[in-house]
Amino acid sequence: MIYINENLCKGCFICVDCCPVGVYTPSKQINQKGVHVPVPQTDKCIKCKLCTLMCPDQVISVEDD
Amino acid sequence: MTEHEHRFMKYLRKERLPHIFCPGCGDGIVLNTIFNAIEMSNTDFDNISMVSGIGCSSRIPGYVKCDSLHTTHGRALAFATGLKTANPKQDVIVVTGDGDATSIGGNHLIHAARRNIDLTVICINNDIYGMTGGQISPTSPKGSYATTAPYGSTDKPFNIAEIAKAAGASYVAKYTTAQPVQISMAIKAGLENKGFSFIEVVAQCPTYYGRKNKIRSPVEMINWLKENTVTLEQAKTMTDEELAGKIITGEYINKPRKEFTEALEDITRQISEVNPDTNINSAYRSE
Predict the structure, then answer these.
(1) Is residue B227 less than 8 Å (CB to CB) from chain A?
(2) Under 8 Å between Cβ of B137 and B128
(3) Domain range spanning residue B194?
(4) Is residue B67 part of a domain?
(5) Which one of A12, A27, B117, B157 has the fewest beta carbons within 10 angstroms of its own beta carbon?
(6) Does B23 touch chain A (CB under 8 A)?
(7) With DSSP H G I counted as helix, E B as strand and the rest as coil, what are the percentages for chain A, rounded to 5?
(8) What is the CA radius of gyration of chain A?
(9) Alpha carbon B191 to chain centroid distance?
(10) Which pTM value belongs to this model?
(11) B181 to each of B37, B95, B189, how far by Cα in Å?
């Protein structure tokens, strides 16, 4: 499962760009902080966990279920 | 640890988050790689102290749940040398920026490297002075724009990794934030190396460098870093003109030699015949 901590996200979209299989898409609506947060498509994920290293704001948590 | 937290959240001072860095700043990526390297190298997190100077990158130790020291501009290495000499068993990590390490603290850097004191220095090079409003730094590429260079910089930039290598550091590596796994491996090697370890990380600064040089978004900046990266092997066959503006990444040197605090202990033992461990630590006792 992929968990997104919306309180920490600043909307830089590095996760959208760095994911090798394109799991993330920016949300259409902004959240309470005015940020387009990434929306994961969990079934596509290959658990390489590159996004957990590349996210500058420690937003994304990928768990092996 | 509460459920579904980021895997490095246990090392961070949660009450201070979200951190001060701009959206898409490379400093956050380096923060992740430091924790990744600590986990990979089995270094005891409680035995780590972090020292930093002034700058965006130097805010990093403020978010890490370990002993940290935020010092004056450019003097991070001077304070770290004192810390390491007083307590040689401590693992000292210095986080510094390009302006902090090469401009204001340039002499501290070369002499710390010359002494080969056991520090792990992570220099986050964003090619600009970000915190003060985007002035030209010693590493700004030729032709790049900044608030102090409205017509483009005319100076040749430093390659900090080459300077550290020439000054005598025993481990030097250079990577960009687009290579987080390589940075983690380099920091791990630096933590394990007994001697001066210098890891330069070229990072993106979308707010100042990006805005002034028309590479405005973090993603564009990361792609710009990727396009301009060449490895050390590739650089050997390239001419100076081809190498202009390129970031040469790789392991510059890995050649361990006698370390400063060890040499100091040896000499203390020879001259005074006192065990340096008890000698130094007796100063802390109040009896």
Answers:
(1) no
(2) yes
(3) 9-276
(4) yes
(5) A27
(6) yes
(7) 20, 20, 60
(8) 11
(9) 12
(10) 0.92
(11) 9, 18, 12
